Amino acid sequence: MKSKNFMKVWKYAFMLTLILAGMAFNGKVVKAADGEIKAVTIKTGKEGLDNSTYTGKLSAVGDDGYVRGSVIKVTTDCSGLLRFHYQGNNSDIVSITVYSDEGLTKDIAYTSLNASSKTEISMGLSISKAGTYYASVRTFEEEDIDFTIAADIYSSDDDSLTEGKSKLVTLLSNKDSNFYKITLKSQGIVKVYTTYANGKKCYADVDIYEAAGGKKKLVSKGESLAEGSVTGLAQGTYYIKLSNGSDSYYSIKYKFTAINDKSGDKKTKAASLKLGTGSKGLILAKDTTSKEDWYKITLNKAQHVTITFTGDVTGDVTLSFYDSENYLFGGLYINEYTAKDSAIPYVGNGNSKKLPKGTYYVKVTKDGSSTSGAYSIKIQ
After folding, report:
1. Cβ–Cβ < 8 Å for 241, 179
2. What residue range is the signal peptide (predicted)?
């Protein structure tokens, strides 16, 4: 009994020595690259690890010393958060050290595990570039240990996004940033959806840059929103920048809606509206506050009308309603918090609430430089 207790104390003392010293294998005991795996790049969260798993044995037979181990070569296609998943065949005390060199002299991560066959133990580390790494699995146990180890990685590389498809990504720190390329074949609105990988609300910056002359030009500053941040964009190539987050996993995707804007850019070129038919308009992120969208409608008789103004916008947008003599009846207002506004313009007493026969004009403007999105006008 005393001998067994002594051995247990000695095992834990030895493991502590490994933790403090980060010592490498004795070259006579463990040869490099007993196995090789390629880390699975996580994109949707549904990827399996079957093709990225190494099965090994730490054999108690023939060891010259109590420390026994195995080395697994690991390759990655990207930088990011690299994770190892270990599972043993019994209650094992093992250590996993990750090295950046084949000689096992440059350790970059270490963990000690009290693992069992019923539990998968994971460890993760940030790597700043794609490449080859080496994971050593060591133990001080006196019996054979069968184990499996697999690896996956959440990318922190710049990449591209496919419209409507979520991608799981990571930021290595709150100073890290990633750019995701998108290409729009027509003008419209882009909604960017960002959450943590588990679907919960996250806090990060989501900005949009335009590709201009080989450089990136900021066109819209935004924030991470599970319900989507809206930006009005012209046809072209853009980059969605994710930044100011933490070393965590994110889900990011975008959706695009084309908008056929037929508004006139001044009163004399106002686009015609039909009674009872809606008309859509687009406010681009790069539009100035002096930009105006004009519409007109002609009433062939005095009648009751209702103006409805709706939108999917970021920022404040104003609709102004005039008669042909520039008399302002009033305004309607929408923003990201108020998606709909309506009014009944009229002339005369409040009982009839009718507009006289004639032509009337609608002007739509953005109230701030960062405002953009799509809107709809309907008069009925």
Report:
1. yes
2. 1-32
Predicted structure pTM score: 0.82
Same domain for 237 and 298 = no
Cβ pair 238, 182 in contact under 8 A? yes
Tokens 């096992």 locate to 104
Cβ(107)–Cβ(19) below 8 Å: no
The number of beta carbons lying within 10 Å of the beta carbon of residue 225 is 18
Tell me which residue has tokens 């181990």: 69
Q: Is residue 146 part of a domain?
A: yes
Number of domains in the chain: 3
| Whole-number Å distance between alpha carbons of 233 and 324 | 32
- What letters, b where the CB count within 10 A reaches 16 and e where it falls short, cover 277-295? eebbbbbbbebeeeebbbb
Q: What is the DSSP string of 14-68?
A: HHHHHHHH-PPPPTTT--S-SEEEEPEEESSS----GGGEEEEEE--TT-SSS-E
Write the pLDDT tens digit of every residue in 243-288. 988 767 899 999 999 999 999 999 999 999 999 999 999 999 999 9
Shared domain check, 352 and 374: yes
